[in-house]
Specification:
The protein is α+β, with helices and mostly antiparallel strands. The chain is built from 4 helices and 7 strands. A 4-stranded antiparallel β-sheet has the order 2-1-3-4, with helices on one face. Strands 5-6-7 form a 3-stranded antiparallel β-sheet, with no helix packed on it. Helix 2 packs parallel to helix 4. The longest helix is centred in the middle third of the chain and has 13 residues. The chain is elongated.
Length: 198
Amino acid sequence: MKQIELVLQNDGVKRNVIFPCTESEYQTTCKELELKDNYAFVRDVVEPKVLALKKDTFVNFDEINYLAKRMDSFDQKELFSFFAAVEAGNYVLTKDLINLTFNLNCYTLIRDVSNLKNIGYPTSYKYGEKVTISTLKRDYGCGGIYHTGSGSPSATYRFSGWYLDWNLTQPFTGEFPAGTVGDIVLYADITMTGSHYY
């Protein structure tokens, strides 16, 4: 199934390429674009639009094809989580996007926020009161509630807290500053503490 469509260019030759592609499509495209080092210039991103950050950059043909294969293995929920994580993060390199596909367990996508009490978040607060965000289990590993992968050796992770920025430099204290209105996005600091191989 088509996951990514790019307009690739090399030495003046342009071609719409759909990923993931089969080995024969891969070879045909490499020949038509005369790719010698597997890199092509992305003239445009047809879809998904969330990958528009790849426009006007050089991409490795193998990496993009592998990313599309990873995306093709996702169910609808995982695909939505991936798109949301790409929009929220600063993923510029294709290898970072590939790594993200293996770490979607670090993100929680809540699509129905019509009743926040049902998902454990307060719907209102009074000035000066602390807001309590549900606490995640601090340590976990493969096969646990946050990760269903397998591999050797097992991976272990640690949740260290909530932050107000994706760089994890501004801890969320649980208090809203005076005059705060609207939504607040929180980022979880989850670190892999052990190795994991697939």
